[in-house]
Amino acid sequence: MWNYRVIKKGEEYGLYEVFYNDEGEISAHAENPDLVGESMEDLLAQLSMMKKDILRTMNEPDRVLEFDKIKFHPFCDDEEDKTEYPFQD
Questions:
Q1: Where are the alpha helices (DSSP H) in the chain?
Q2: What pLDDT does residue 64 have?
Q3: What is the pTM of this model?
């Protein structure tokens, strides 16, 4: 069995997958959280945004992106900003 649990690490709250044995005791949790926030309210706000985005995509199926077909564009026109971002080609 598994579910999501809020785990506080330092000053941050994370939403982690937590796994249980047959007696319902915690056996493991994911190494990294699926969400991180400064408060539980922050986690709720992120989840609310995710839910809205999923519902919008359900109503507009053309909004679904194909992972390997995303065309990336620069964040700004400033050539001095050469910051690399995850999953950006």
A1: 40-59
A2: 96
A3: 0.73
